[in-house]
């Protein structure tokens, strides 16, 4: 039988994320024995081993990893369906736009102003989020559209419209010797033992190994740079939030960053279509990157 229930998928995802049956049961608010039985029944029905259990703990098999990825997408889709259905029935017609806090402030301002000037435009609620959270918000229905960045954000399966291409800059403490340079290369900033480059979370929430601090949000990053503890590599529009204690230097060999408007595939929302139409028109303006 190939049919899967959302309840058993939720049970499996929780165990796979915790890799510990007791913690997973506590998180789900159920006893451990019925949780263990549910996973065993799921494995028997599918005819595969999803989890390896031994004295050292629990690990995912290859088949388990596939089901984890698929189950997350399914659970996100069911949650999104419920949220979008409620919004469709709401008396107040509005659109939720997710964007990383501190990113592309000027682009966001121009997009919101241009959209508000359109006949019949709906209200846009701006949902500020952390690094890499926009994709999940689109997939689980918390957001209708999002401003995201290629190549850093997870755009897989989303429809997108390119808006702005920027170079990257190094943001350093204003008093550091490199702050006076007219330009730098990636080799220059990767060879500064007293000022390691900040590390951003990857799409799975983990961090690349390295000496730089693990960054969780823009405020933390700004403070650590001002204190002379780290430097950061960001798109040029990040200059809009720099402090006097910061300096920005162009990077000549860093890959360019493309800001895109993204939305769920096959969306039939007229409000999303209106925002996409505004973004397309805005992209053609010569002052977009100003």
Report what the structure shows.
- By secondary structure, the chain is α+β, with helices and mostly antiparallel strands.
- The chain has 3 domains: 6-84, Arc Repressor Mutant, subunit A (Orthogonal Bundle), CATH 1.10.10.10; 92-166 and 257-283, 3-Layer(aba) Sandwich (D-Maltodextrin-Binding Protein, domain 2), CATH 3.40.190; 168-250, D-Maltodextrin-Binding Protein, domain 2, CATH 3.40.190.
- The protein contains 9 helices and 10 strands.
- Strands 4-3-5-10-6 form a 5-stranded mixed β-sheet. A 3-stranded antiparallel β-sheet has the order 8-7-9.
- Strand 1 (51-54) and strand 2 form a beta hairpin.
- Helix 1 crosses helix 4 (62-89) and helix 5 crosses helix 9 (270-283).
- The longest helix has 28 residues, at 62-89.
- The chain starts with 5 loop residues before the first helix and ends in a 7-residue tail after the last helix.
- The relative contact order is 0.14.
- The model has no long low-confidence stretch (mean pLDDT 88).
Q: What topology does this entry show?
A:
Elements: H1 6-18, H2 21-28, H3 32-46, E1 51-54, E2 57-60, H4 62-89, E3 94-100, H5 105-116, E4 123-129, H6 134-139, E5 145-150, E6 159-166, E7 168-173, H7 186-189, H8 218-226, E8 232-235, E9 246-250, E10 257-263, H9 270-283
Parallel strand pairs: 3-4, 3-5
Antiparallel strand pairs: 1-2, 5-10, 6-10, 7-8, 7-9
Pfam families: HTH_1 (PF00126), LysR_substrate (PF03466)
Protein name: LysR family transcriptional regulator
GO cellular component, one term: protein-DNA complex
């Amino acid at each position: 039988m190939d049919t899967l229930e959302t309840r058993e998928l939720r049970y499996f995802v929780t165990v796979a994320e915790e890799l510990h049956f007791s913690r997973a049961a506590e998180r789900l608010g159920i006893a451990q024995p019925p949780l263990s039985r549910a996973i065993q029944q799921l494995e028997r029905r599918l005819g595969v081993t999803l989890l390896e259990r031994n004295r050292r703990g629990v690990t995912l098999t290859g088949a388990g990893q596939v089901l984890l990825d698929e189950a997350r997408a399914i659970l996100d889709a069911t949650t999104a369906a419920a949220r979008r259905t409620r919004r469709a029935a709401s008396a107040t017609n509005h659109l939720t736009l997710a964007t990383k806090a501190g990113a592309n402030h000027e682009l966001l301002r121009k997009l919101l102003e241009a959209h508000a000037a359109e006949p019949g435009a709906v209200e846009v609620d701006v949902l500020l989020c952390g690094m890499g959270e926009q994709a999940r918000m689109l997939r689980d229905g918390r957001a209708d559209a999002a401003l995201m960045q290629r190549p850093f954000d997870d755009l897989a399966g989303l429809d997108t419209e390119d808006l702005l291409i920027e170079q990257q800059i190094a943001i350093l403490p204003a008093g550091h010797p490199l702050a006076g340079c007219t330009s730098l290369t990636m080799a220059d900033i990767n060879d500064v033992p007293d000022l390691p480059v900040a590390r951003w979370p990857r799409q799975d929430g983990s961090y690349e190994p390295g000496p730089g601090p693990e960054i969780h949000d823009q405020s933390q990053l700004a403070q650590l740079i001002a204190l002379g503890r780290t430097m950061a590599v960001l798109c040029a529009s990040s200059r809009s939030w720099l402090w006097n204690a910061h300096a920005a230097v162009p990077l000549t060999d860093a890959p360019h960053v493309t800001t895109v408007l993204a939305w769920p595939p096959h969306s039939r929302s007229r409000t999303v279509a209106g925002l996409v139409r505004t973004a397309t028109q805005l992209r053609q303006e010569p002052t977009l990157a100003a």
